[in-house]
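Problem 12. The chain below contains 398 residues. Write out its predicted structure in token notation.
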Amino acid sequence: MASESNGFSAAAADRKIITCKAAVVWAPGEPFVIQKVQVEPPQKLEVRIKILFTSICHTDLSAWKGENELQRVYPRILGHEAAGVVESVGEGVEDLRSGDHVVPIFNGECGDCAHCRNPNTNLCARYRVDPFKSVMVADGGTRFSAVDGASGVRRPVYHFLNTSTFVEFTVLDAACVAKIPPAAPLERMCLLSCGISTGVGAVWNTAQVTSGSTVAVFGLGAVGLAVAEGARYRKASQIIGVDINPDKFVLGNQMGITDFVNPKDHDKSVHEVIRELTGGGVDYSFECAGNLDALREAFLSTHDGWGLTVMLGIHPTPRMLPFHPMELFDGRRLVASVFGDFKGKSQLPSFAEKCMHGNGEDKINLDGFISHELPFEDINKAFELLEQGKALRCMLHL
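Solution.
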């Protein structure tokens, strides 16, 4: 890496443009191009961080394919699960400084708005997750630029989900950067940027699953397995995993799943199978597949009178919810959870502490989620592994 700024400096006069390596996607579905980009210094209430580790989520895969029309802005630097070190801070940033260990968070927290002051939501009025957003809040511009290989013209490169982590240095709004304990292993803390926090938080914060509860998890990707891990930690008595990929069942055992249901193995609907397994339905179900048919099955798999379904999957299609309003009068409830209802900046540090400590059943199994580790230059291979269902989380080392 060639850089015009060596080392970490918080002094405004020392902050310069950094030239570094990034994985740029120039059009939907095209291979990532490993190339040099220029990264501007942070402006007011912004932070520039050096990314050391980044992993790949299905949301990145969906954006790369251009499946969601809201995310079709190119060229772009994707990525939103990462960990790194603060390089410099912009004017007005008081809670972060050069050298701090941090993780980016796609769902920001300013700490001052009515939303942030309300304990019943983790959405921020200004910095919440926004799939439309591809520029910075301060001036509506981008902090990245690169030379188009075809034309030789320097072009702006756009941001993604408040984060953009497929790059050696990135600029974020300070509200989207969470400080973590310096002793925490950054390679593992990377997972807290999205998948683990989303799944575990949905169990702990959204559903508030208690000991002895019964749980069904629809979709055993990283988020679904994080749900299972959170339910195991909370000592759920029965955790049922639902997926059409039998390979997921082997790993699911390590995350506390007690029963498996492959829809392809049954002539009856999944919710009927689960009701038979549980004597009427589970207390909680979690839909992690982004599939409306799975969402309906998850809803109907809960016990009438008190069952709660938590929706975590991303649903990009224009199809509406598959329920008749009268079905809600049976006492079943449906809610959605963003980032596991964690307030990122204020609550993620304590979650990181929990992940660092504990033994056996009282420790979150972060290691189990990392299925592959590759150098950053192999990002296209990492996406191929995820698309083929062969990877849970592929950790890229920058």
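Discussion. The domain at 199-337 is CATH 3.40.50.720 (Rossmann fold). Students who got a different answer should revisit the alignment rule from Section 12.3.
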